[in-house]
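Section 3.1 - Work completed
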Amino acid sequence: MDKFMIWGGERLHGEVEISACKNAVLPVLAAALLAETPSVIKKAPWLKDVDTMLLILQALGVTTKRSFEGDVTIDPTTLKSWEAPYELIRKMRSSIYVLGALLGKLGKAVVSLPGGCVIGPRPIDLHIKGLTQLGAAIEKRHGYLIAEAKQLRGARIFLGGPFGSSVGATIDIMLAAVKAEGVTVIESAACEPDVADVALFLNKMGAKITGAGTPTLTIEGTKELHGTEHTVIPDRIEAGTYMIAAAATDGDIALLGAEPRHLEAVIAKLREAGVEVFEEEGKIRVRSTGTKRPTDVTTLSYPGFPTDLQAQFMALMSITSGVSRIVEKIYPDRFMHVGELGRLGADMTMDSNSALVRGVPSLSGAPVMASDLRASAALIIAGLVAEGETLIHRVYHIDRGYVDIENKLANLGAKIRRVKAN
């Protein structure tokens, strides 16, 4: 498996282009199944997860084509199967979106229970609850979800869960509901920009969705959808990661194409920590002058601070003088990075779903192991500021969610190199 070698101590500076949003493009690719004609997704990011989704669609018989520029064409007219294979579905949780799409398109689906990063239990109960209320009969058998519906019918569905609204369930139910008979109302729907972008794509296909980006989604079913062309929103998590990296290295970088409206909670916390953030036309500039303050963070559903930036912010706080507390309210077990940051010299204490972080003057490079996608990003940030050499193992995680991260960081002045597996 590939590794990253990082020599810390370099200040990041310059410009970095933010890629299209991973968490929006994956359900958009699944949504393209619902059309009667091909769709084109412009500048889809070159990520392992995107590759996996395309392989899943191909396994269903869908014809896919990708241009040199990254544009992806999805032709659903060749769809011939409703069974998504385990060997592909197990690789990422977002593959569950083909469940709602296949139910909407064909009225039946056989989908393996999904895999993905190990960040604690992430049940799909809300997906099943919502699809069942639309009229689908769903059973679990031999590790698969077997779903069938003679006719999906609109319903009023409440999606509130113990840790807030569910992005995945909101999207999956929306994919099925656009082809259901009648009107569906989703209460306590997720408000993330990813959800709104998928709704925009579906509306361009001919769907009738209102309320996207609010807790109440209304979907009027339609019999036929047509293909369309769509450019996915910028990736706020990639942008947030580079913003935090700039802050940690006392850098000065501009993030081209980043959307400030999607990052208000992150911008507020960075400013609270003493980092300068400027919202300029078509970009966000982040500058750190070296004096940072400890800042508490609690992850919440959007528009709160995103759980997908919790690990990265913890890495920043680990070198910020004083004491801060990080509370995880979305995935309470999402703290596997704490032990690895400790190997670099971070001083942290765990207590249930929170971590007390005592800032240290410096970190020291060491071999570490990436446990999941966002933990990988946190270890990279820590490696960028650690003294000496940091070797990060299992970087295949990072390839799932960050486009060409080592070259983007190198162009900003970081000393980072990918070591290819033998």
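Second construct:
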Amino acid sequence: MPVPLMLIMLSLSILVGILGKNRKWGFWAYLFASLLLTPLIGLLLVLASDSKKRL
């Protein structure tokens, strides 16, 4: 895989992690999920998950 494509995929995965930081799994879980699968599937996971419950 070319280096620019890897950097784009890493950047998108970090963005998915940032979007998921206030979700059920948190930043790291969504980051790793989007790195292992694809950023698009990671984004779908973020959109399908619930927000963290606030006390």
